[in-house]
Amino acid sequence: MKHWLGRSLRRKLSFLLIVSMIGPIVLLGYFSYHTASSVSEEKAKLSGMNILRQLDTQFQLMVKDVENLSIFLIGDDDVQRYLSAPQRNVVLRTSIIVFLTNLVFSKDYIADIRIVPDDDKEAIAYSQTPGARQPVAREEAESFAGREDKTWSLAAQLSGASGAGQTMTLSRPIRSTDHYATIGHLTISLNRDALTRSLRRSGMEGGGYVLLLDGQNRVIAGDGPAPGARIEERFPGVRLDKASGGFLNYGDGDGKMTLMVYRMPGVDWTLLGVIPFKQYSSENQHLLRLTAAVVVLEGLILAGIILFLTARITQPLRRLARFLKTGNPEEELPMLPAQTVDEVGQLIMSYNRLSGRIQRLTERVKENEARKKEADLLALQAQIHPHFLYNTLSSIHWLAMANREHRIARMVGALSDFLRFSLNDGEEYCTVGQEAAHAQSYVRIQSDRYPDEWEVRFDIDPDCERGMMLKLLLQPLIENAIRHGVLPKEGKGSIEVSMARDGPWLRVIVQDNGVGMDEEKLERLRASLEREPERSPDKPIGGGYGLRNVHRRLRMHYTGNPGLHLESWEGLGTKAAFTIPIFEVTDDEAHDR
């Protein structure tokens, strides 16, 4: 794959553009799918919560209607007379039953109504369940003992055609309108089947359902759990007592579902909506397939556009590449026609200019080669001159020795050694011993010129003689000490040269007892070392170009080197010193040098 792409700019450019463009499209598709799935889930939750609010309104109307009905029955004259009478009144009881039948005939959500006297009179009961059993009056009276206000509670529903179960029952005492004493109790029970039908008609999406719970999280109505069962039996581990309302995620895998909790105000009831997560996944699968189809379609369209554009863009480049590949490098490069003025056209025009430049450079190279051969010949002739000079000096040396001119012989020999070291094939480095010997040759020549004017003492550490250093550093310092230090001095001068090793460092000191200089001249000399050399015959203060040359060569060849360190005392002398790294050479390298 890498080799296939690397052989063609068109393929490489098309691949990179397709990847760079399709990548964001895939990310956008994923983001769209994730957003749409989140929106669908939120939509289902909000729709479910709206259903719970509608059920709350419906049940609140039932509750309010039942409470109003209970108040109406408590204040009914027949009911008051029946309960306040000291004896049973069968006619009045029958009239009340007929009245109850007509009153709640159209209210299918009322299961039964019971009026239970506190004395031994027979209770009055009405039930919409045919064949329901009528309870005993005394048992009813004992069950209501201690109740002084209205209460909604989960109680046993009457047995009948609808089957046994539990439903919510409103219980409240009946007080006399004459002396406000309790004379009986009234209970109105809701029809569980009617409540369950209302829950079923709620229209919860995706196979969801709604349960009606009491204050202790027991099931009042709904499909699934038996009436009176605690919700923890249906959903183990769920803690609805800590949820004031909202959404809970329960379960995992295929059994995962969303629980919607809605607390009904006014009564201690809870509406619990249940939506399986598979409802979301089924909707999300449709979104996923739609998003994938859109992404694939956009990718194919985009890939086709990219391939078409890259073919059009790279066509001139391919033509130029084929031309250069098949062209003969030995022949003159022809010009290519530039058909556009864009970057590719500019490239072809640049190629045309470059081909002309190459042709001119080729002619120049041929001319330079001819000149180089001539220069090599001149260089070969120039190499004869040093050998001629050495041979001539050697002849003078032996003639002086033959005539017993030992001073002349000594000076010629020293000059020959001095020149031989200075012109040793242009090498920049030498051993410390060679540098010291070169300086001593210079001192011997100058001693013969100025006899008894000064003396030079060399103190060379034997441990550093085999170390390597930059050549021609020591002689300029000695020359400067002679010319500007001891020669202007009255009397015989002295110069001390020290080369000592300090670990990996070589410390070089050249100190004289000459005329020295004051602080002002010393500062001017130090400043002159940092300036560029002036093109004038005048020399800088304190001497010359030799010190500046040594200073700059030290800083150029030894990275981070501070260069020369100068100290001087007027009438006492001058001290020049520097420190450089030193490294050893093998015996073979030392012999070669």
How are the elements arranged and paired?
Layout: H1 2-6, H2 9-74, H3 77-84, H4 90-103, E1 110-117, E2 124-127, H5 137-143, E3 151-157, E4 165-175, E5 182-190, H6 192-200, E6 209-213, E7 219-221, H7 231-234, E8 246-250, E9 257-264, E10 269-276, H8 277-326, H9 343-382, H10 384-402, H11 406-422, E11 429-431, H12 432-449, E12 454-460, E13 467-470, H13 474-486, E14 493-502, E15 505-512, H14 519-530, H15 545-557, E16 565-569, E17 573-581, E18 583-584, H16 587-592
Parallel strand pairs: 12-14
Antiparallel strand pairs: 1-2, 1-5, 3-4, 4-5, 6-7, 6-10, 8-9, 9-10, 11-13, 13-18, 14-15, 15-17, 16-17
Overview of the molecule:
This protein has 16 helices and 18 strands. The strands form four sheets. The chain has a five-stranded antiparallel sheet with strand order 2-1-5-4-3, with helices on both faces. A five-stranded antiparallel sheet has the order 7-6-10-9-8. It has a five-stranded mixed sheet with strand order 12-14-15-17-16. The protein is elongated. A hairpin with a 4-residue loop joins strand 9 (257-264) and strand 10 (269-276). The model is unreliable at 131-142, 158-164, 377-384 and 535-543 (pLDDT under 50). The protein has 593 residues and is an alpha+beta fold. It starts with a helix and ends with a helix.
Quick recap of the structure?
With 593 residues, the protein is an alpha+beta fold. 51% of the residues lie in helices and 20% in strands.
Which tags fit this structure?
593 residues, alpha+beta, five-stranded antiparallel beta sheet, 16 helices, 18 strands, elongated
